[in-house]
Give the backbone structure.
Amino acid sequence: MQTQSLKMWCLKGFIGALSTLSALSAEAHVVLTQKSAPVGGYFRAQFMVGHGCEGSATVAVQVDLPDGVPVARPQPKSGWTLSYETGPLAEPANVHGKMKTEGIRRVIWRGGPLPDEQYDEFTLLVFLAKPGEQRFRVLQTCETGQNDWAEAYSGSGPKPTFPAPLLTVTPAVEAAPVPTDDSGATHQHHHH
Ligand SMILES: [Cu+2]
C-alpha cells in the first residue's frame, strides 16, 4: 500500500520533470548525471537528487561505495556538513600502482534543507578499479521519512521504486603498440 503510493508519487514527479524539461532527458529520483566511465582512472561521480521524500525536504544524503570503487574523495558543499566512514576493502585494489586495503566506504552530507521542489548535486571523485556494473546505494533522509535508493536495476524489466544509482565501468582501451625501434622517443628519454 505504502510502496504503491510512493511509486505513484515518483511517477508523477517523473512525468512532471518530463513536461518541464522535455529537451533534456532529466530524471527525478537520485541518479548519476554521467552513467558510464572507463576502468583504471578517476571519475567525477555526481549524484543528482531530484526530489525529497513524498513532499518532505532533504536533510541528509548518504552514499555507500561499492566494492569496485576503492577510493572516494568527497566534495565539500556549502550549507552541508560532510562526514565519512573508512573501512577495509572487500579485496585489495591497485590504484595507480599502489595496493590499497582500506578507504572511505561511506560519505554523508548533512544540511540543507533542500526543498522537495528543488534539486541539487552531490559529488565524489572516485577511482574505478573494476569493469562492470557498480551500484551506489544512496540513503536520502528528509525532515519526514527516508528514501533508500538501494534496489538493483540494470535497465530492463520492471523498474523498481527506488533503484540504486548505477555506473557502468567500461573495460580498459587496449594500449597503443609500443615502438620496437631502439631510437624511439620513450627509450631516448630514458637514457638522456
Ligand atoms: Cu523519483
Summary: Helices lie at 2-20, 185-191. The radius of gyration is 20 Å. The first helix runs from residue 2 to 20. Residues 28-171 form a domain with the Immunoglobulin-like fold (CATH 2.60.40.2230).
